[in-house]
Input
Amino acid sequence: MLHGDLLDLCRQAGVKEVHADTLRACIFRRGERDFLSMHGLPKLFTHWLKAHVCHPSVSVLHTQVDTDHTQKMLLRLPYGGEVESVLIPAAGRITQCISSQVGCAMACTFCLTATAGLQRNLHTSEMIAQLMQAKWLMGSYPRNVVLMGMGEPLHNYNAVARFVWIATDPAGIALSPRRITLSTSGLVPAIKRMQADNLPCNLAVSLNASNDTVRNDLMPVNHKYPLSVLMPVLRDFSAQTKRKRVLIEYVLIDGVNDTLKDAMALVDLLADLPCTVNLLPLNTHHGTSYRRSSDAAVQQFWQTLNSAGYVAVVRQSRGQNISAACGQLKAENIPPKD
Ligand code: SF4
Output
């Protein structure tokens, strides 16, 4: 809930609007779960909240913790369905990967989540509930948030945008806009909308190919928004929003997009775009025949980008000993419906 929504609740309950600030502190700053035990609010108001408002909470169905301390949770949502959320520790900080849809409509051919298709969009409260679950587990909110879990965030724009505004509200959860990254498959109109709204978060684009032929095979969204349409929009986004860099994600797949020629074509494609490139060797899973690139191919690809002056980082997948691919924990614990 944004502050205006909390003011509305006060008006509906017939209490002074000043209680909106206390309610915001109880729910978002302190992460309190039970309306009835919230201090500083009139008793009548807490009972009214209990009767009329659904607290943003999820239940944990299953948890896997890897030896690297990556923790993957399968969460049941208050409005039905299950999603995954992952807590990734690194250098004393926690990054949380948040899901925005149950399933996904984008049908990327290397992705396990895609095999279920889109079941529904998450409500804003269900994304906030993932953050609150992390706070209840760890005692504080994660330092970094990436909208890179199940779903295409920009296919659920209104709810995701509200999530970003609530998560960055300085009087509430107070995440830094620099520490929230929204990842898209390349939905051009929604990227333009993000830019027009000046949404306070970073943009990551899952590119995965340096030409339309390969990208059409990997990511059907490319038929609608090919590279000749997408790349100028990214350049404009970067220039207009003054965000330092767009994050380019590139999943490396053996023999598909990982050759020297691919790397050199990517160098040309990214010309004049201030960006950082994350190279992600594919997480193999049972739903795909694609294979992870060899270490030599990964090294060659990285070297080519690096020599051309790009900041490129190879991200070894965290949680290698648990169900590391997005959607894998759900697939193992929730049997598909007939
Ligand atoms: S990679 Fe992302 S956008 Fe593509 S199908 Fe999977 S969840 Fe959806």
Residues 124-138 form the longest helix (15 residues).
